[in-house]
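Handout, tutorial session.
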Amino acid sequence: MALMVEKTGKTVEDAINEALEELGITSDEAIIEVLDEGGAGGVLGIGRRLAKVRVSLDEENIHPNLTSDEAPVYYGDDEFTEEPESAEEAETTAYVAAIMSGIGIHGKISSYREDETLHIEISGQDVGAAIGHHGETLDAIQYLATLVANRNTESRLRVSVDIGGYRRRRESTLISMAERSAEKVARSGRAFKMEPMNPAERRIVHSALQNFPGVSTHSEGEEPERCVVITPAEA
């Protein structure tokens, strides 16, 4: 099952870029279909038809060396690439594996501990279906995994779940978007409101622009529409 969006824009390139940003992928990882190249309107361009594209995740490029016949299913500890350090880690990783298996997604799962964070990484051909729009399904899986990891312990264990490298790609996309927007704000002197993001994504943007010259950032709005606003720095 592919992760897909359709977008319109003044040009085909604008529509493609917007779709890639929403999916958090690069053009090399995408299947791009031009549905409508758009067209000129009447006098002064009034009535111009927007370009329209369909962009989907090319799942074969998530793990190009793994064929569907070779892909192991998420069953049991045999698919763990590293031995969990504690019962909580083993239980949490097995729980995520069970979710993947339950929704019919095949691939490979690995986990490792870094300080107080348990990282669980999933790879395979058909994993895009478990990411969801802007990572919403992935965030839900991560939230449930965090509950499992902390239900029988007094210490707080943070859980980070990544599927097909989505979080790394999304972080890179957010940083690029933030820096381009900051450059526009610094040039124009006008504030810019970014798209709504979850708290983790807003932290990425704030951090990326913390030392960006000529701008400052803050968040405004209520969840789930809360967003980062980039403003010209005070003189």
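The second record follows below. Compare its token runs with those of the first.
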Amino acid sequence: MMIRSRYRRNNKLLALLLALSLTSISGIATAQILHRFGQSIQPIFEGFEKNTDGSFTMWFGYLNRNYDELPNVPIGANNAFLAADGVTDAGPVREDLVLDDPGAADRGQPTFFYPRRQQFVFGVQVPMDFVGKELVWHLTHNGETHTAVGTLEQGNIWSVDEGVWSANRGRGVGGRTGLVYVNQPPTVRMVGVEGQLYTTVGRPVTLRTFASDDGLPGARENPRRRPQQDPLPNDLPVVGGGLGRNSPKSQGIINYTAADETGLAITWIKYRGPGQVQFDSAVTSLVASGEEAVVSASFSQSGTYVLRAYADDGAFTRSSDVTVVVQ
């Protein structure tokens, strides 16, 4: 009887341990679920830079929690900014506050969202007297509203310099002379564009950009190889299911470091627009500063698009936009 009793107790103990083990595994599996569709977008305040004229540039990015879904969220009640004095509540903003001032709602934010974490996507310039105020980006998708609150307070925390840019882009924090970073951001502008461009579905439009840089931080000694894969619209890292799917950094498209080989590159993306955009070469490494990059873009459907060219020196990015009306 004693043996049987001990046997029963051992069985109960084994069953309990098995149940705890399965519960633990289930919890880990739940935490690691990769959502392809149906999730929200979290806008993110990256920090601010002080400009030479005394104004500030507030930088924003986002986390699209989906691995495959590419949302289009037009400017309006679901994608808007609100400038506020002393506002500390980051909850949903009243629609009338946004819609009564369309200029404040549109601060140049994207309406097309790539998967996962995209850093330093756009900057909003604010005057030097903006201290004490807030710039709040409200974004609603898949039934959830999230906000990012930009502020100039606590400058040591939110101030960003080359070290912050470089560290976030995987280059470390080198490049200083003493306690000062000497690298200057690249410059980029469109060539031969006055106003909007016009084309039709199926007819490519040619885009020319000029970029220059100070040569810093320069090319990597051991450039990272871009993953070999089947081409996708925009010819950028695989969306969903591909190499590095679990790594937010490997999902970076807007700030994909394209300057590894030569130290300066142009990356084209669709920033706003209803349909797909196909670039013949979305990433172009420039051999020298002051060189022009030429690409063509075609569109899957009619509408108004904003295409953005990022000049990338491996640490900083700066951008230039062109509007294309597709008929």
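Points raised in discussion: The chain has two domains: 41-158, 180-326.
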